[in-house]
Amino acid sequence: MEHEDQQVEQIKQFIKEYGPWIVAGVVIGLGSLFGWRHYQDSQTQAAESRTAIYQQMLETLQFSEGDEASARAQALAAELEGSEQGALAQLHLAQQAVNQGDFDAARSYLESAHATLRSGELKSIVALRLARLDIAREDYNSAEAWLNGIRSSAFAANVAEVRGDIHYARGNHAAARESYLAAAEASVSGASTALQMKIDNLAGHE
After folding, report:
1. To 10 degrees, the CA torsion angle through 82, 87, 88, 93?
2. N or C: which end of the chain has fewer CB within 10 A?
């Protein structure tokens, strides 16, 4: 009992010397610490849950066919909306839509993924896919806009090649060949077989 009385007196003395606001700050600080730990734990659990749902969606696309499987995959992707896993899920749905010839649906999935992703590299990859898709849709201005939004020099070769595809689709063969040559020069490994075929096909169009 005497020991407890001493502790009470020590606390009173602490409050008297340092003021109630400092004591309140200590309490709030401890509360924030425990709250942050709880938040981190909940975030980890949420991430694990999203990963499990994403895996289910991949398995649905890989091992199932038909409208029912497609609807199931879309429902799973909807559960991940707004997350990185959700954006990746939409990339797979976009690929499925392209395989089915539904370019408008594919574009919608890709635009949603691009808006959600935080990684600059992933956003650039999606922008390149959108540009290629817009070329297939003959929306060349939109395709150029997606390319113009890619700032990373790591994608310089890809951007130049797709820009060449836009020129070619518009019938600007000389400009297309220049872009293809720029793509080959910017590529660390040199021109791919497909890119070299594009260059050779436009020989003489300087």
Report:
1. 110
2. N
